[in-house]
Amino acid sequence: MDDILKIADREFKSRFMIGTGKFPSDEIMNRCLEASEAEIITVAVRRVDLENPNADIMSALDPKKIFILPNTSGAQNADEAVRTAMLARGMGLSNWIKLEVTPDPKYLWPDGDETLKAAKILVKEGFVVLPYIGPDPVLAKKLEDAGTATVMPLASPIGTNKGMKSVDTIKIIIEQAGIPVVIDAGIGSPSDAALAMELGADAVMINTAISASPEPVKMAEAFKLASRAGRFAYLAGMAEKRDTARPSSPTKWLVK
Amino acid sequence: MFYEEFLKINKELIKKAVNSGDKTRVETAVKKESVSYEDFLALLSPAAASLLDSMAIRSREMTQKHFGKNINMYIPLYISNECSNECAYCGFNRKNKINRKTLSEEEVKAELEGIKSLGYNSILLLTGEAPDKAGLDYVARCVALARKYFTQVSLEIYPMDTDGYKKLVDNGATGLTVYQETYDPETYKKVHLSGQKKNFEWRINTPDRAAQAGFRKIGIGALLGLYDWRTEAAYVGAHAAYIMKKYWKTEVSVSFPRMRGSSSGFKPSEIISDKELVQMIFALRIFTKFAGITLSTREAADFRDNMISLGVTNMSAGSKTNPGGYVGSESEGQFEICDDRSVREILDAIKSRGYYPVFKDWADTFGGNK
Of A50, A67, A219, B90, which residue is the least packed, with the fewest Cβ within 10 Å? Predict the structure, then answer.
């Protein structure tokens, strides 16, 4: 049976999304895409330059091969994010939007209030909204109630590669969610991605850990395998963790 | 305002620290995730000079972590070389007999179109300090005009009050760069002989006013060659850290302009070597890990090429420093260009080092852009 990730009205075989930032060239980005078998790639609207099609990131991507998810990176408040989403739709990119509202240019920590405010507006405007959030279970539920298609909690601050620093709250988000949970930001190694998937996350989003690797293409493949392994483990169900050994057949003596 | 903080900084302690750092402290600082101000001073000291390689590696790592392998491309456009100030080191000094020019709006338009055809999306508009010839209204009109062609319009103009800056932000300006020139008040007094620029406090508080007016990006720096570079760098670092903490939504970038020959004939009090400049850049990167670092065409081609992978995040290419220079005007420039390669040649240099030149990194929907 196929294990399909369904977000809004779209289905994806891959549970691994990839970002476009920080790659040294379009060629390496495309080779990573191929190796990763990712089906969703995010593109910052602020980077899209339709006036210069040859020098633009969009010219390097084939929308037939990969779903291009525009993001609002750079927006510092709900108003900027909403207008950026509208701009993306106006450019003909998509009515899907990865909602990022990060007033702090240093750690790019998402602003929960402004994200929720923007999400409510965008959902009403007919967007499929995938919000980037801190690992906050209450905010995740509020966004779901507002009609977002996913929630995308960060594992640790963006670009840090520090991995799953918020396991406890992410577990709560996953347990309570009625929509897909995509772990976004901070995943630094394939084992982090595997852990996220083992916990029951629906997908992972990776950028820096691949683009900043000395061998990005090989690393993209490593993440593909790790996220699959984590997903298989989740589907299989983990054996219980125990402090002591137990006999495998404690009632064997009854059988004579 | 920063001037109050500046007064609290013990200049003698800084001087002592930057001149007596110990090697062990530098070795430790280079390995830290976040370095203290004292560590930063040690990184500026002569003791750090023998550890440049370790600093370079750390600078590269930290830059790639936050900025990736991206180099943001910008280009300067001088819209006026009129100036009412008498700055001893500057080609625009009002006493210098040079061809003065303030571009008409038609001329600005022609320059903008010329630059746009090079592929740029980010422009830096510059003027001297001549409020009667290139005043607020004129600059605001130029900003609005530039916004029709470019997604980012930054300014390097004379200090204004917060309301003036707000008007520029409302017209679409996104960033402001203002160099303190020197953080030493005595030297400042000696080289700024007359004009509004003589007011040290007004100038040092300019980034505060700019941030309060809503500029999203603020650039600072010192003009290297006026005073002891280690001390200047110590103050630039303190100023950058102050802005980042107080105006937490504002991006800060730092530039390191070395004094170049100009029609002023001014002789720098010290010549900063490549090795010293590099140490300063690495120290600032390690201390202010989120700050952008700008390297203009004041620097030579091979120096710039070698720095691409070691901490730089913003570069200009194909620059002219005289008003009307892109369409062939004969007005005077502010300083000599050292890297006069074409845009294409510089892009090739960036790409050949495995880096990505970024021309557009801003949306019309951000900040002052309406």
Answer: A50
